[in-house]
């Protein structure tokens, strides 16, 4: 199940599950962090004329 599928399932669920919402919040945060790290890695990999001092 993807994050988007889980989000839809959670929104359409008849019973509210605080544990499921906690999982969703944590998963979404990790997903955003992963995207940020992937962008930073791409920037590093595409860097030219890098000088470490």
What do you see in this structure?
The chain has 53 residues and is an all-alpha fold. It has one domain (3-45). It is 72% helix and 0% strand. It has helices spanning 3-12, 18-45. Helix 1 (3-12) packs antiparallel against helix 2 (18-45).
Short description:
The protein is mainly α. It contains 2 helices and no strands. The longest helix has 28 residues, at 18-45.
Strand content: under 5%
Element pattern in H and E: HH
Rg, Å, rounded: 18 Å
Distance between the termini: 45 Å
Structural class: mainly alpha
Residue runs with pLDDT of under 50 for 5 or more positions: none
Provide mean pLDDT, rounded: 93
Query: How many DSSP E strands?
Result: 0
Give the proportion of residues in helices: over 70%
Q: How would you sum up the major sheet?
A: none
What best-fitting shape do the alpha-carbon axes yield?
rod-shaped
Layout of helices and strands, plus pairs?
Layout: H1 3-12, H2 18-45
Helix pairs in contact: 1-2
Which short descriptors sum up this protein?
mainly alpha; 53 residues
């Amino acid at each position: 199940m993807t994050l988007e599928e889980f989000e839809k399932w959670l929104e359409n669920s008849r019973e509210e599950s605080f544990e499921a919402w906690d999982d969703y919040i944590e998963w979404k945060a990790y997903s955003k962090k992963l995207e940020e790290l992937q962008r930073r890695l791409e920037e590093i990999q595409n860097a030219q004329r890098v000088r470490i001092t």
